[in-house]
Design a protein that fits this description.
The strands form four sheets. This protein has a seven-stranded mixed sheet with strand order 5-2-1-6-7-9-10. Strands 12, 13, 14, 15 and 16 form a five-stranded antiparallel sheet that branches. It has a two-stranded antiparallel sheet with strand order 3-4. The protein is elongated. It has eight helices and 16 strands. A hairpin with a 4-residue loop joins strand 3 and strand 4. By secondary structure, the protein is α/β, with parallel strands linked by helices. The N and C termini lie far apart (64 Å). It folds into two domains: 198 residues, 3-Layer(aba) Sandwich (Rossmann fold); 93 residues, Methionyl-tRNA Fmet Formyltransferase, Chain A, domain 2 (Roll), CATH 3.10.25.10.
């Protein structure tokens, strides 16, 4: 049996999965992705990364605004797909859409379910100080990431991982699971395992979370910095050429020095926190590229005993 596959995905994270499915010889009969959005300085309409890749590969693409429209699900049913492979699509699928493919819809999720169900599992795992996560393919249900697990690959989170690096790792590890999952599906060998444990939820990142609060523990802030790098970026205000300026922090390390929270303990960006302190190592002023602390300080010195807000 040669499976007829529908692929649903939108961002760069999903492109390796579509590529791996195609490279394994499966027939992808249609791709669903989010509609083009305005982006860039010129605010030009831009197709999603999955849309662009699908067009290169000659696959028909649909960009419905919503799967709540019966006509959209009519179109999905008419495809006669055996299975839908879903990776960061960005829309909630109603039950009728989940039931449209003969074998239903399978979803790639970047966490060790039921931990970090929801929209931002990569960021939340690092922000919480987790030491491991997973790429998992699950059978989709109406609930938020509640379906049984079909295939799983554990991924370690190192002390150097950022949301960006872990995102890339999970994207490629997850992509490698699809050929195994589809081959098992063809031979009837996919064994569902119910999720076990107390669920946690990876809510979307709120802008208010990104500001560094020096009264919090240094390790918590270090996790936050890595969990929000490269986007949206944790930030603080540092002395600038014309007064305080907002600066994103992309890398820092914890040091065992103490002082009043928010006070610089030397002239090289060692800042006292609620406990211990944080050394800022990689910074990005507004409108500038990311730079090392030494380069930042050449144009914007920050003296010892400066009180930061």
């Amino acid at each position: 049996m040669s499976l007829r596959v529908v692929f649903m995905g939108t961002p760069e994270f999903a492109v390796p999965s579509l590529s791996e499915i195609l490279a394994s010889g499966y027939e992808v009969v249609r791709v669903y992705t989010q509609p083009p959005q305005r982006a860039g300085r010129g605010k030009q309409m831009r197709k999603s990364p999955v849309h662009q890749f699908a067009e290169i590969m000659g696959i028909p693409v649909e960009t419905p605004e919503s799967f709540r429209k019966p006509s959209v699900i009519d179109g999905l049913e008419a495809v006669g797909a055996d299975v839908a492979c879903v990776v960061a699509y960005g829309q909630i699928l109603p039950q009728r859409a989940l039931d449209a493919p003969r074998e239903g819809c399978l979803n790639l999720h970047g966490s060790l379910l039921p931990r970090w169900r929801g929209a931002a599992p990569v960021q939340r795992a690092i922000m919480a100080g987790d030491t491991k996560t997973a790429a998992q393919i699950m059978q989709m249900e109406k609930g938020l990431d509640t379906g049984p697990i079909l295939l799983s690959e554990i991924v370690s989170i190192s002390n150097e991982d950022t949301a960006g690096s872990l995102h890339d790792t999970l994207s490629h590890v997850g992509a490698s699971l699809w050929p195994r999952a589809l081959a098992a599906l063809e031979r009837g060998g996919l064994v569902p395992t119910q999720q076990d444990g107390e669920p946690t939820y990876a809510t979307k990142i709120d802008k208010a979370e990104a500001r560094l609060d020096w009264h919090k523990p240094a390790q918590e802030l270090e996790y936050l910095i890595r969990g929000l790098s490269p986007f949206p970026g944790a930030w603080c205000e540092l002395p600038g050429r014309k007064g305080p300026e907002r600066v994103k922090i992309h890398l820092a390390c914890v040091e065992n020095a103490h002082g009043k929270a928010g006070t610089t303990l030397d002239d090289a960006l060692l800042i006292a926190c609620g406990d211990a302190s944080l050394r800022l190592l990689r910074l990005q002023p507004a409108g500038k590229n990311v730079m090392d602390a030494q380069d930042y300080l050449r144009g914007r010195p920050c003296a010892k005993s400066t009180q930061l807000s």
